[in-house]
# Entry
Amino acid sequence: MSWSIGKNIIRKDAVEKVTGTAKYTADAPTSNMYHVKLVISQHAHAKLKAVNVARAWDVSGVRAILLGQSSLPLTGDEVKDRPILAFDRVRYFGEPIAAVVADEPFQAKKAAELIEVIYEPLPVVQSPKEALQRDAVLLHENLASYDKVQYVYPEKGSNVANRVKIRKGTIEQALLESDVVIEENFSLSPSDHTAMETRCVIAEVKQDGFVHFTSTTQAPYRIKEQMSNYFNIDEGKIIVNAPYVGGGFGGKVALHLELIAYLATVAVGGKQVKLHYTREEDMVTAPGRIGLEATIKLAATKDGKITGAKLLYLFDTGAYSDKGTMISKAAAATCTGPYQIDNIWCDSLAVYTNHPYATAYRGFSHSELLFAFERAMDILARKLGMDPLELRKKNAILPGQTTPTQVPLNSSTVGDLPRCINKLKELMNWQEGTVIPIDDEKVRVKGISCSWKTSTIGPSASSGVALLFNPDGSINVLSGIVEIGMGAKTILAQLLAEKLKMDIQKIHVHMEVNTQTTPEHYKTAASRGTLMAGRALVKAADDAIRQLKQIAAQVLICSPDDLDVGYEKVYVREEPDAFVEVKDICYGYKYPNGYAIGGQIIGKGTYTLRHLTNLDRHTGIGKTGPEYTIGAQGVEVEFNTKDFTYKILKAYSVIDAGKVLNPQTAIGQIMGGMSMGLNHASSETFVFNDEGIVQNPRFRTYGPFRYGNHPDYIVHFLENPHIDGPFGARGVGESGLIGMPAALANSLSVASRVELNRLPLTPEFIWHEKKAGNNDDLV
Amino acid sequence: MVKNEVTLHVNGETRSLYIRNAETLLYTLREKLGLTGAKPGCLNGDCGACTVEVNGAAIKSCIMLTIEAANQQITTVEGLQDAPIQTQFVEKFAFQCGYCTPGFIMNCNTLIEKYPEANETVIKKWLESNICRCTGYKEIEDAVKAVLTSNQADSSV
Ligand code: FES
Ligand code: FES
# Structure
């Protein structure tokens, strides 16, 4: 019987969040700060002829005006290709050109509006395919000379920021020997995270030389590391605070406005400055979600065994690479979806265009690649005359088989896809059929998709946890995980309560992260919080248990080996009545005569991901993540065959979660992910005009789901443990999202009887495709 | 810069302060009164993160000028005392990052006060003015319906 694990423990951040007392970055009092406002590019690609600031200085309260210059470092996670403020040239609509520092926000804004920028427009590149044309305009002529990390491969004289190759088996042979081959193109445009909290940073250089940031970040420790690299500041002298973050979805992993804010504070003698993005800036100036053009070719035998996959993924990383290169790598590593295919040829590229640049987005390439691949699976099933779920089951990847990067799997490292599929069939009442007429106009249709996800983060990523006991026996948990919404710190408290069999009310989690005083957690991303911080916590708990036993052994005059810790006591295992209370020893123990032994118990633990490697440049062999979370998902849609409008009635997820630690939190993560996936699939996208200008950088026109757009969610978990995970748990933070776009597109393709290979799936787009194809040959 | 004195009645307190005429209520609440529960999400009325109550109506404080709110009764999330909707938000896990939460809570609270009998259509009409990017709205639906149902049960006794 579990103590705390598997229970719907109320979140530790609940009271603060429902009373409005939870503090986010922008909530800090500003009476003592200057404010920064940016001038952003109005062109997607142009030479900067001049930036005239004279009139801006006339505005009262202006303290500094910053412009880009070549002496400042170029920045970027893998390829250093991005100026902090543009100089000579702008490469995307929204790119920062200048920054004004003033006493009041309205003064900074007024001054920024008076800065005159003279552009000379350049030709605009709007898609990866266009960017790869022989005569395409180059975004970065100096690509070859940029600093970069070792394992990315920008291609000189082209717009290719990275190319990852997967070569497994012999694809040409597989294509020749198959009975059926399909080949299709798929695409989706860049879009945005639009977390409800727009990005904000407060920066200051104190008299003692310490540099302080408070930021809306998922990666405070990376800010510290990178600022140190770019500006030659001792890493120990950079202190980053990460309070509550109002949603990240990957977008707040990137180092972005911290760079500008640092220059701004330096320009005003180190005084505190605040840079707070408007919604519009948050959408176009800050990095967004990557776009994709994909070509999928699948070969199969008559009976539905897939023999080969030839895949081309062209990611639209926009003007700068940021996480684009790693996204292309993550996509390559899981390029086939959760299927066993002996012969794979895949090229996965990150390609520069004049779109806003891309960073991590929940799923980290998986929802994009699965959209393409899982659509192709449905098209193949149709061509084979096979049930789409049967085709998937037949090719499901299983323990004993190897991934595209040739990682051998076992039942711990991969979830159980066949069982997920069986459960999905049952929940969706699959035998009822996939198209059910409602009346003359409307049909009810079903569509499905399978998914897998592993993380692609630095091979040496680690996480630490410290446990500080209070004299009353309660414990403070310190972890570098940022609370971005997923409830990770409540999960840590649950794990600790379970380990120590203690009242969770006596476990206090410190929500804010301060890089000077909180043990490092690599970054709060990639659904790795539970595994990494969870394992660190378990280790820290063991460390505390060992210390408690050591003191208790002296008090109880026995060997520590004979003791157990639980129920807020340390007791003799065989005779539980012989015990000492934790509160009486967690600050050391005082003998009646006044002698004292021991001191405050401080438990510590760290965890580093094991045996991860980079991918071989020529074959892609290597291991990017610890385990593969598996899922099967579906939707049920009411579709109007006359006007192509539709309503999503139900959305299903069956996820192999390893172990569900807090059911309500896990379901919430999955439902939120499903909503986001369906939203992206049905309406969210940047709309670009011919000049590459984003036409809809605001909620009103961007199309976020609202209350009432939500379907009924049906969520089911399997629990095949990941042995390395705390209590067997797998990462599920992204699993709700990643299969949804394909599932919706598959259902609507059946409903509309035309292959829908582009997102978002608006009624207008469906109408367009119907008209273009004017074919009625889908079954 | 010209500033004028206004009197605001916020959460039962009367506060006099100097503001610029162009100041929005959201700005004044957050920057002058330290009431940061109401959040900026778009500053143009699209998202509802800034929702407060003004004379019992749910108002997006980013598109109301402070001078318009002078001498009116303003309630922000900080002014709620154990409102049933707050309890239900906790119990139904109706928040994740929590950024949209104060706005949603204020909007739900006004809905519950104004339309204790609210049906599906009214709830949808009312709540679609706010955006949440983390949840799938289901938990928020559960929370608001739990309060409405329990109020209806109470009043039918
Ligand atoms: S901030 Fe007021 S509606 Fe979005
Ligand atoms: S809880 Fe994050 S936006 Fe609603």
